[in-house]
Every structure is written in structure tokens, then in C-alpha cells.
Amino acid sequence: RALAGAPRDLAGRRVVVSAGGTREPIDPVRFIGNRSSGIQGYALAKVAAARGAEVVLVAANTALPDPAGVRVERVGSALEMREAVLKAAASADAVVMAAAVADFRPVTSATSKIKKKDADDVPRIELVQNPDILAELVGRRAPGQVIAGFAAETDDVLAHGRAKLARKGCDLLVVNQVGEDLTFGAPDNAGVVLSASGREREIPRGTKEALASVVWDEITSLLT
Ligand code: CTP
Ligand code: CA
């Protein structure tokens, strides 16, 4: 079982998990968001806590209750997530980026609600790229710190995953297939854990907690 009777092999470890989808403000009432439910990230936090870790969960938008025994820091946008994650990561043994961080944000957020005008006068939202938090974590990684990412892909899952792992420079990348009814908001998940060492471990479809357990197994094997 992922939770009850879990090994206490993360006792004395500090870990950071990010979860949920960021919201990039357009104006005070609107945002650009994504379909991440946060369930996988919350499962990672719960399982780590059950295995004895001190957990900081940096949560972007989710509809989930705070897991017991976990410090939850709520954030909205990718920039807020970056600040919270980098701060918490400074003293962490492991960081797992399970959040769906928006790749782009509106250049500016209007200070008052954008109003409708004539049908041919439609606002254009100019976007700018958000910082890559995972890449920044890798860039400032402390010796021995283990860093893992997630990659949701719709096609060529393994090929995209391998290329992404190499590009990001993290220790582990969990890849899974998304789309239609797969993964988003669902209680179950499946995937492959790709390691920088070349190791590839397939995780059969099961609960998101079961997948989280395998991810922590892989992380634990890298912790010194
Ligand atoms: N990530 C991040 N900061 C970003 C974007 C992504 O930290 N600005 C992290 C995610 O949390 C995830 C990993 O990077 O752990 C991979 O995210 P993904 O969106 O699959 O990768 P991208 O590099 O953004 O590539 P893509 O063009 O496929 O979206
Ligand atoms: Ca992305």
C-alpha cells in the first residue's frame, strides 16, 4: 500500500513538491489556465509525508483539501510559483515539479476588467514566456539534491520524454500520455520514469498514489 504501512525511508528528509496548474492573470477576473487537477502532485506530497519526509507542497490552483502533515503554500501564477519553489528548494533534499506551469503569461494584466466594445474591436493578448522553474532548479542544485520533473505528452511520449530529460538536465522525468479522458482529473495514472542514467521504469496504470510511491522509490535510490 502507498500510504498505510509505508516504509519510513524519507524520515529526516526535506522535500518540495509542486502541484496544480498556474493561472496567468489577464485582468482582475480572468486568467489563462490549464487542465491540471493537482491530484498527482498532492499524491506525491501525501506519500512523501507518509514515508516520513518533511514536505512543502507548493500548490497552484486545485480544488483539493490540504493534505495532513504537509506544509502547503498556495500560489497563483508561474512567477509566484517560481518564487515559492526556489525558496523552499534551497534547503531541500529532493524537489518534484508536478505542477503544470504555464509556458506563457500575458505581458501585462489589466488593473480593471476588460470591457466589451464593438464587435470588430477585440482585445489582443500579448504573451511572454515564463521562466522555466525546473531548469532554474537544476542550475542552482545543491550537491546531492535530487530533482524530478513530469512531462505530459499527447504523442511520441517516450521520444519527447527522453529529449526533454536531456534538455532539462534533471535526474528523473516522469512521462505520461494525456488527452481526452487520460490523466487530467482522473484518479489513476500510468507512465514511465526516465532517469538521467538511462534507466527507464514503466509504471503500470494504477492510482496516482501508487505512481507517487514508485517515483519516491526512484528518488530514494538516488539520495545519498
Ligand atoms: N516546468 C517548469 N517551469 C516552466 C515549465 C515547465 O518548471 N515554465 C516543469 C514542469 O513542472 C514539468 C517539466 O518542467 O516538471 C516539464 O514541463 P513541460 O511543460 O512538459 O516541458 P516544457 O519544457 O515546458 O516543454 P513543452 O513545450 O512540451 O511544454
Ligand atoms: Ca510546458
Automatic annotation (TrEMBL):
In the N-terminal section; belongs to the HFCD (homo-oligomeric flavin containing Cys decarboxylase) superfamily. In the C-terminal section; belongs to the PPC synthetase family. The chain holds residues 177 to 400 of 400 of the full protein. Catalyzes two sequential steps in the biosynthesis of coenzyme A. In the first step cysteine is conjugated to 4'-phosphopantothenate to form 4-phosphopantothenoylcysteine. In the second step the latter compound is decarboxylated to form 4'-phosphopantotheine. Catalyzes two steps in the biosynthesis of coenzyme A. In the first step cysteine is conjugated to 4'-phosphopantothenate to form 4-phosphopantothenoylcysteine, in the latter compound is decarboxylated to form 4'-phosphopantotheine. Residues 15-224 are annotated as: Phosphopantothenate--cysteine ligase. Binds 1 FMN per subunit. It comes from Actinocorallia libanotica. Its cofactor is Mg(2+); FMN. The gene is coaBC. The lineage of its organism: Bacteria, Bacillati, Actinomycetota, Actinomycetes, Streptosporangiales. The keyword Metal-binding applies. Pathway: Cofactor biosynthesis; coenzyme A biosynthesis; CoA from (R)-pantothenate: step 2/5; Cofactor biosynthesis; coenzyme A biosynthesis; CoA from (R)-pantothenate: step 3/5. This is Coenzyme A biosynthesis bifunctional protein CoaBC. Residues 10-221 form the DNA/pantothenate metabolism flavoprotein C-terminal domain.
